[in-house]
Design the sequence.
């Protein structure tokens, strides 16, 4: 009878639900990896500590317009950030960011990031708009920087005469 009670309580303990990646590492800083293109210019870690991105291979002038980029992140690329920026004379005049998150922890970080990012980047020169960590969302912030670099590249290419 005692053995049965122990087995029963052991099974009850095994029936607890585990939530993957909802742990101490969810939302913590990590080095950004290259985008699917493999181009090192997309690495958020290219900036030195001062925020200088002069070595990233992207430079103005930038064409006025609205540009969008999406980047995925997470251990299996389960989360995404979608960024749309309007650029006028090299300055970000409007910013819209949305996120897609698999887990509730990531969704909370993204939600806080989305609520704060517009006030952080609007009015900034696009070359100086890389961010460190906004609203405690380190991975979302690093992914935003990758999307920003993709947008800088689009705006730079749009300003380059064809021919």
Sequence:
């Amino acid at each position: 009878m005692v053995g049965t009670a122990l087995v029963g309580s052991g099974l009850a303990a095994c029936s607890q639900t585990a939530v993957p990646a909802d742990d101490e590492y969810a939302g913590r800083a990590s080095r950004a990896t290259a985008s699917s293109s493999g181009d090192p210019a997309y690495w958020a870690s290219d900036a030195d500590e001062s925020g200088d991105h002069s070595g990233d291979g992207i430079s103005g002038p930038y064409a006025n317009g609205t540009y969008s980029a999406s980047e995925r992140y997470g251990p299996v690329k389960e989360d995404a950030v979608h960024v749309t920026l309007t650029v006028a004379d090299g300055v970000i005049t409007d910013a819209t960011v949305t996120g897609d998150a698999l887990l509730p922890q990531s969704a909370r970080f993204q939600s806080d990031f989305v609520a704060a990012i517009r006030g952080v980047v609007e009015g900034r020169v696009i070359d100086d708009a890389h961010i460190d960590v906004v609203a405690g969302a380190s991975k979302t912030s690093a992914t935003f920087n990758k999307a920003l670099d993709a947008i800088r590249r689009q705006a730079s290419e749009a300003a380059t005469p064809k021919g």
Q: What stands out?
A: The CA atoms of residues 34 and 43 lie 5 Å apart. The mean pLDDT is 76. The helical segments are 2-14, 104-121, 138-159.
